[in-house]
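Working notes for the structural subgroup meeting. M.R. asked for a predicted model of this chain before we commit to crystallization trials. I am recording the input and output together here so anyone reviewing the notebook later can reproduce the run.

Input as submitted:
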Amino acid sequence: MDHALETVKFYYDFKSPFSYLAFEPALALERTYRVRLRFIPHLFDFTAYGGTLADRDERSWRKVRYLYLDARRFANERGLVIKGPQRLFDSRLALISGLFADREGHFREYAGRVWELFFKRELDIEKIDELAPLLAAAGMDPDAFRRYAENEGPRELAAALEEGERDGVFGVPTLIVAGEPFWGNDRVEWAAKKLDAMGLGRAEDNPESR
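Returned structure, recorded in token form:
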């Protein structure tokens, strides 16, 4: 049997509550299946929810309020806190920090903390001075990140966004399994079924573990 890991793409945005909700279930796929997650930033599209705060009509606001209601329902089941941000954030810097953390091999611990604090309204993802301590706590060099953010970071973010366009990504979170997209935190289970159908369950390596 071929034991090579299948790559599953995980498109995310730090300002997306549903990306936060999908993160841990997606990580669990690596423990259950012979897969490797590849984390790719993708900018959340505000236009799908009525645009800027000033541009939103009442119908758009009803949609946004309902989506956060659903997000809190999912979060409450898992003991997570999700508070709606009090303004629209530009997450580009935070996404560049995610690329840096991934390059340094610390994405998982760093990203989890960013989402946790952002949705508790305890982190401004637009400020490098607030992201830097989280990078340091996860074992990275904040000064190296500052240099990355000024040089390679923007180019690598642009390349990631272009890849998302090629993959047909229109929202986050999106998982891509063998070319098939699964959009939404509640679609991780469907991604798992796809992996089952592909015969990628880790239990299949060890029949005695079934």
